[in-house]
Amino acid sequence: MHKDDLMTPKERIGNYFSGKEIDRIPILPFLGTIGGSVSGITLREGRASAQNQAFMQIKCYERLGNDLMNIDYGLHGLGAALGSKLNDPEDDIPAVSEYRLKDLSELSQLDISDCDSKKDLVLKQHLDATQILLEKYSDECGVDITVPGPFTAAASLYPVEKLLRSIRKSPEDVHKLMKLCTQGLKQVCSEFIKLGISITLCDPVASASILSVSNYNEYVKPYTAELVDHIHSLNTEVGYHICGNTTKILKDMVSTGVDMLSLDSAVDMLYAKQTVGDGICLVGNVDPVNVIMLGTAEEIDEAVKKCFIDASDNKNGFIIATGCDIPSKTPLTNLDAFMSSARKYGKIYKNRS
After folding, report:
1. Cβ contacts of 163 within 8 Å, gap of 6 or more
2. Which residues, in sequence order, are bridge partners of residue 320?
3. d(Cα 98, Cα 257) in Å, to the nearest integer?
4. DSSP 211
5. What is the rounded distance in angstroms from the CA atom of residue 283 to the CA atom of residue 311?
6. CB 264 within 8 A of CB 305
7. How far, in whole angstroms, is CA 226 from its chain's centroid?
8. Please, are residues 278 and 316 in contact by the beta-carbon 8 Å criterion?
9. Cα(293)–Cα(279) distance, rounded to whole angstroms?
10. Pick from 228, 225, 150, 236: which is nearest to 193 by CA?
11. DSSP three-state, residue 83
12. CA distance 175 to 198
């Protein structure tokens, strides 16, 4: 437990969502990329073993006292399991270097059982890292797994530009790909849920800057809803994040049935509260680049305060967070400043109604 807190993360989150007294509003910064800087190892080293992966999260928690630790299955995890090849940068997130599908006519060649941890050693490593965190902090802090949403999973098998072209030219094949990815993600989520953790879906390729609203509703929403229903059937909650400006699809995102909606900094938090706050907990959304990485402590403080003013009275709850992943080059003093301001205003606004 962090020295500046009066409750453990599990106590705080449990009390918050049951309407009981808390010491402050929960804080959930995106720590996937900056975890290497905090822990003193490269991201490549962090990916090398379950122990290293868990080590990064442990060091973040020890320094920051964030309210949930996170293991990242990887936006391209499903694609890699099914045959796409990834690069291995020293201090960045892996990208696809070779796509498994050259054409959607090859879909029948994919075997969804390759996503099983008995075959996918990377998935097995993520599960082992999760288990390490659970064994160390089971009574104190929960663990969350980030998995790609169905459309981003599809884009890890087939290049996004071809995928968008196929929406126009062969929509039925795109639906077949989406169905396959959804089934694979159900399998992956089920393995993590057996360990007793929550799920966050991250679907950046479904961004409104890439897809139209109508395409989101046809090719993303039904498959996301199906995956959410599956996760709920296993008695687990689901968070949902799409990068960029999702203002036009806020209601559609909520209609997938997710329990928490994580908003990027491009979305006006006050508008989101007024538009969908009656039906969902909002998470966000301090700008991770212009404010957290490049800003001063004073600018960080003002941005955090604005989020609390705009959304801390949301009827279904509010969690302060960054709008997306914090860049690896962010000064750690700025990260500390974010946590300090979030604690300060989390205490001030905890009883706001």
Report:
1. 154, 155, 174, 177
2. 27, 284
3. 34
4. S
5. 9
6. no
7. 18
8. yes
9. 32
10. 236
11. coil
12. 27
SS3 (DSSP) at 138: coil
Q: Tell me which residue of 192, 182, 166, 62 sits closest to 106, measured CA to CA.
A: 166
Length of the chain: 353
Indicate the DSSP class of residue 4: T
User: Is the entire prediction scored with pTM above 0.70?
Assistant: yes
How many CB atoms are closer than 10 A to CB 65? Answer: 18
C-alpha–C-alpha distance, residues 241 and 265, integer Å? 12
Residue 352 pLDDT grade (very low, low, confident, very high; cuts 50, 70, 90): confident
For residue range 123-132, list pLDDT tens digits in order: 999 999 999 9
pLDDT of residue 353: 59
Which pLDDT value is given to residue 306? 98
Quick count: other Cβ atoms within 10 Å of Cβ 21? Answer: 9
Strand arrangement, sheet containing 143-148: 27-28, 318-322, 281-286, 260-262, 238-241, 198-202, 143-148, 69-72
The phi, psi pair for 253, rounded to 5°, reads -65, -45
Q: Are 79 and 122 in contact (CB under 8 A)?
A: no
CA 188 – CA 64 distance, rounded (Å)? 29
Model pLDDT for residues 268-308, shown as the tens digit of each residue: 999 999 999 999 999 999 999 999 999 999 999 999 999 99
DSSP 261-318: EE--TTS-HHHHHHHHTTTSEEEEEE-IIIIIITS-HHHHHHHHHHHHHHHTT-TT-E
The total of other beta-carbon atoms located within 10 Å of residue 259's CB is 19
Q: What is the CA radius of gyration of the chain?
A: 19
